[in-house]
Amino acid sequence: LWGGRFSPPRFPRPPPAAAGRGPGGSGGGRAYAPPAERKRFYQNVSISQGEGGFEINLDHRKLKTPQAKLFTVPSEALAIAVATEWDSQRDTIKFYTMHLTTLCNTALDNPTQRNKTQLIRAAVKFLDTDTICYRVEEPAALAELQKNEWDPVVAWAENRYNVTIGSSTSILGPNIPASTKETFVSHLASYNMWALQGIEYVITQLKSLILTMGLIDRHITVEKAVLLSRLEEEYQIQRWGNVEWAHDYDLCELRARAAAGTLFVHLCSESSTVKHKLLQD
User: Fold this and answer.
1) Domains assigned to the chain
2) I need a surface site. Which of 106, 145, 209, 236 has the fewest CB within 10 A?
3) Where, if anywhere, are coiled coils annotated (predicted)?
């Protein structure tokens, strides 16, 4: 490995995350426009350890961020995952498929210039519009589906964090107690800046802090979290059918982004060293 080659509908869904300008990718899909595909310009991908962390090498060139900073990540496991993204590109580099690279660039460049407190407050603010807290009264079948599928996750979160969340059919949403928000603020403060970038990324995909924490805590799978975040849309598709290809594409993209964000959080919290071994395709 070292030096060797890696042989819900009421809310609009975001576009696939952009990897940013140049070979370094981007941050979060907010600050950088997605570049066009470009021809693969390197043969070998490797990782090396520098003073600031683990670096990615494309042949003999070190990877840089869109703001020309040296691309360094805090854990070897994350470096391997990013290197695998670059090595998996074939004749052309499809930046929009490189979600981990995107997230690393966001953490390194911090294009919105937010500090840890601001990241946490932005994440907790999603509680006010959390997808699984908004319920319908009609049709009865959808209301029952939401109750059966969403209530257990809300109950888990209330028990896990010892908070009150609830749900509401009002357009104003549920009245989340201030104590609940402060509890989540305290909990999120235990994560580092890199992990917080990943948590916020997943929240924006699922439109739900509760589902995101269920993912991070390994209470639910990516497939389950995505299904729950799209419950009303899936209900309508079952009833009326779907647009050919569009539904499957959106579903796969959302799964990929949610999975990448969750993996990013875990890898950014990884402190152990990965045993050196060659990763093959």
Assistant:
1) 45-109 (3.30.2180.10), 116-270 (1.10.3580.10)
2) 236
3) none
H or E element: which one contains 260? helix 246-268
Supply the angle between the helices 222-229 and 140-161 in degrees, to the nearest 10.
130
Q: What global pTM score does this model have?
A: 0.82
Residues 6+ positions from 26 with CB-CB distance below 8 Å: 17, 18, 19, 20, 32, 34, 66, 95, 102, 105, 106
The two tokens of residue 5 are 């080659």
At residue 270, the pLDDT reads 61
Length of the chain measured in residues? 281
> Residue 227, SS3?
helix
The 10s digit of each residue's pLDDT in 150-190 is: 999 999 999 999 999 989 998 887 899 999 999 999 999 99
- Return the structure tokens found at 231: 């419950």
Phi and psi torsions of 55, nearest 5°: -110, 160
20's tokens: 């940013």
Please provide residue 258's backbone torsions phi and psi, each rounded to the nearest 5 degrees: -65, -40
Separation between Cα atoms, residue 153 and residue 131, nearest integer Å: 12
**What is the C-alpha separation between 267 and 281, in angstroms, rounded?**
20
Helices (H), 110-219: 116-125, 140-161, 178-188, 193-206, 209-216
Tokens of 97: 């498929």
Do the beta carbons of residue 189 and residue 120 sit within 8 Å? yes
Q: Which tens digits make up the pLDDT trace of 206-217? A: 999 999 999 999
* Whole-number Å distance between alpha carbons of 9 and 90: 35
8 Å CB contact between 210 and 130: yes
